[in-house]
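Notebook B, p. 112. Complex prediction, attempt 2.
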Amino acid sequence: MRDKQAIEIIGAIDLDPAKAERDLGEVVGASDAPWGVKVFADPQQALDLNADVVIHATSSSLAKVMDQLLACLEAQCCIVSTCEELSYPFRTQPELAAKLDAAAKEWGVALVGTGVNPGFVMDKLVLTLAAVSQRIEQAKALRIVDASQRRLPLQKKIGAGLSVDEFRTQVKAGAIKHVGLPESVAMVADSLNLPVENISETIEPKVASERVATEYLTVEKGQAAGVHQIARGLSKDGKELVHLELQMYVGAKDPSDTITLTGHPNISLTIPGGSHGDIATASVVVNSIPVILDAPAGLRTSRDLPIGFFSPSAKP
Amino acid sequence: MRDKQAIEIIGAIDLDPAKAERDLGEVVGASDAPWGVKVFADPQQALDLNADVVIHATSSSLAKVMDQLLACLEAQCCIVSTCEELSYPFRTQPELAAKLDAAAKEWGVALVGTGVNPGFVMDKLVLTLAAVSQRIEQAKALRIVDASQRRLPLQKKIGAGLSVDEFRTQVKAGAIKHVGLPESVAMVADSLNLPVENISETIEPKVASERVATEYLTVEKGQAAGVHQIARGLSKDGKELVHLELQMYVGAKDPSDTITLTGHPNISLTIPGGSHGDIATASVVVNSIPVILDAPAGLRTSRDLPIGFFSPSAKP
């Protein structure tokens, strides 16, 4: 965000006592700190600064962040949020979606939930590729991420190093889950006019076929190396119209993002190596700032917005 | 276009006496003809029907089609045009661009030049992929098309079967050229904020290394099999910041579309087999109807518009 000359960061919010009331540059360990930007413990103090846009990254759960989002809208701030459930909540949480849309319109601002996934690989990019198609019958996306190079919290979040039993227990408890696949299924189905009646989701462990050691932990053969999660959009008679598959595990052999559209004509697309989860998410969020500021008031989705690169010297 | 329930085709225009004043369904040889849609020889008669949008496909040259476009705008029709030079004319023909933009705003309608290339592979898709990047230093696109499966006029247009000397003569005469690469270079450079000062273009023959026979013609070893065209966006000191390369020839071995972005992070994308030129162009054009109808008045480009699939039953 600091690369973009058109943006001025005027404040930050963090409830963590170790960060609150300090300088943002110092909190993030920047070499050019201090930045003269304060981290507020009280969100309202930051919102009182009259920002044009709030970059919001606190939780995957839309229900949990409703009050935060409504406070930002009431302060007449546009919002770019990484809340996965906000990416396309019209099927999964229609009442919350309607409430946010109404509040955004009342205050004359726009908000969007986006990131690399949901927000890009399995929805926006699928729909962009679909522009070259005359007819579409089925959409598939497969994202394979090698978690070996990622940070420890992510490796733990995907259950790397757990026994298969522990993995399944944590899945049941809701602790292991990539959030956002059903939202992407819904966006793709609605946009391609595929008659999806039912969205299902499965989470299985990727079991290590050999020992894998990362900087942070070791996964023994037979232990869980990460998640293998599939969301399916099914027609009334059970036909799979949308298939979104995420394999995120340490030691993944061929990381890549692949989209496959069946129709007229068939067409596919591959990003060898895949888009980098951490950098790509931050980039999509920052690159969405000009488009959300320019969007009509209301709840928007990555489908509606002409995403691209936010030039460093561009005006937002 | 007939697949989309939201569209009604109300008229067509063709100056060809063999087509004019006949039924459109009969002219295109449709099995369900007649459609009750007339092909007009006089454009004004079609424009008097008060269409919401005109699909315009007559020439690659913006100067040649200016009067046609202005007549459509004056009739308060939005326009989706395949005129390659219209795709991003702000650098190459700024006066014509300004005139069209002003006329469109005066009449309260929007127009766009688009298709698969320019309009998608080498510009829109490049900019979409750029959304996952934090910093971009160079953009490359390579489109390899096997012309063997394409229609005879295209095979002739790319010089397949000519001697290398004849090929060069026809390039000099302007008869062999894919139009639109400099427009895509300009769109990419401006959107990624790459300091391109100079756009250059080369057209060379792809020389057949063995005999190739298509349904329509035969290319002997040593003859031209098609075009190898490169447009470059160069910085003031000659650094190549944008590189768009088209190889379109009969017998091409690995047809594909590939985009490569250098920056942070590096990222690339491949469409194996490539997007199909004829179907993809028509699809992008038809899929652009809802977005141009929804766009603010003025001259738009594929960069501005959130392209996707135009659902058969969607409202435009």
